[in-house]
Amino acid sequence: MKNGIFFGIGVGPGDPELLTVKAIHAIRQADVLIAPKTEKKDGSVALSIARPYLKPDVEIVYQVFPMVRDFAADTSAWQENKEEILALLRQGRNVAFLTLGDPMFFSTYIYIYRLLQHEDIAIETIPGVPAFAAIASKSGRPIVEGDDILTIIPATAPPEKIQQAMQVSDNVVLMKVYKNFPAIVDQLKEHDMLRHAVLVSRAGLDGECVIDDLEAQRGKKLNYLSTILTRRAEVGAEEKGSGAR
């Protein structure tokens, strides 16, 4: 029996209409959908986004993936999920792994991909729209232009690494700001990036929250799906001259 295909599918930040045509085609080819979740949450956000495109008879398998900082140090929690996926593929069934945003961008999929890439199976990874791109388009904020340097920073990184990154960046995207938001506000202020910052939680999902005054919300508890876009420049694009490409 021929093995099935393993699809890693980015479903974007929240709006089902932001799925690519290729992602929708792959979802409709899938016999089984893997819906990742953490131990603390019921259901799957990625599955809820993809639901309008599911086949009526598709099998949905929820797999728990612990949130880890050093995956390479201990893969034991992932091996059981890998074996379950392999068993399904060896039955000749196509398996789709759904993930928020893009599969290769701060994604659980990366770890399961590394475990499966040396197996004798076909893998197709389908990109998705990252949250910061959707936020920029919806809010009318260019991410970069001209010779700007953009840095994407996980706010969970050590403070000294965040400091170094901000020092050399014109524009910044900050991901995972839910844990140390007050410290991030201080660093943005220090680097003259606070005034132009916008924070969006649950972009494109129910309960979306947009915060323009980050200083006023310093003590606010943020959703895990929270992203900050900001820039250092004091002038807007209209004052930079033409330079169209």
From TrEMBL:
UniProt keywords, alphabetically: Cobalamin biosynthesis, Methyltransferase, S-adenosyl-L-methionine, Transferase
Residue intervals of the Tetrapyrrole methylase domain: 7-211
InterPro entries: 4pyrrol_Mease, 4pyrrol_Methylase_sf, 4pyrrole_Mease_sub1, 4pyrrole_Mease_sub2, CobI/CbiL, CobI/CbiL/CobIJ_dom
Key word Methyltransferase present: yes
Cited Gene3D superfamilies: Cobalt-precorrin-4 Transmethylase, Domain 1, Methyltransferase, Cobalt-precorrin-4 Transmethylase, Domain 2
MF GO annotations: cobalt-factor II C20-methyltransferase activity; precorrin-2 C20-methyltransferase activity
GO biological process terms on file: cobalamin biosynthetic process; methylation
E.C. code: 2.1.1.151
Functional pathway: Cofactor biosynthesis; adenosylcobalamin biosynthesis
Assigned protein family: Belongs to the precorrin methyltransferase family.
Protein name: Cobalt-precorrin-2 C(20)-methyltransferase
UniProt organism field: Mitsuokella jalaludinii
